[in-house]
Design goal:
mainly alpha; 72% helix; 2 helices; 94 residues; mitochondrion inner membrane
Length: 94
């Protein structure tokens, strides 16, 4: 029974890895195209156009990395602030 469970975990892990690679390639391509198109519209210099394309590619890779980290359970998410129910008072006031 435990061997079947281990095989299922390996298959699920491989599926997540394939899904993450696919997501990374797609977001890299789409965000690069969006950055390149924005560079054509907004900038005149070829250097800034390439910088816009590189920024788009980096944004795509970063968003894919964040989502894949969530799938593998390594991303803790946003930390929540603890709010106490009792009000904070200054010492010495009566």
């Amino acid at each position: 029974m435990s061997e079947e469970k281990n095989k299922q975990q390996v298959v699920a892990s491989e599926y997540n890895l394939d899904a993450c690679l696919d997501l990374g390639v797609r977001r890299f391509a789409y965000f690069s195209l969006i950055g390149g198109f924005a560079g054509l519209l907004l900038f005149r210099s070829p250097v800034t156009r390439w910088a816009s394309t590189a920024f788009g590619a980096g944004t795509g890779i970063g968003s894919a990395y964040t989502e894949c980290s969530k799938k593998f359970g390594g991303y803790p998410g946003k930390p929540t602030a603890s709010i106490s129910e009792t009000p904070i008072t200054k010492g010495g006031e009566d």
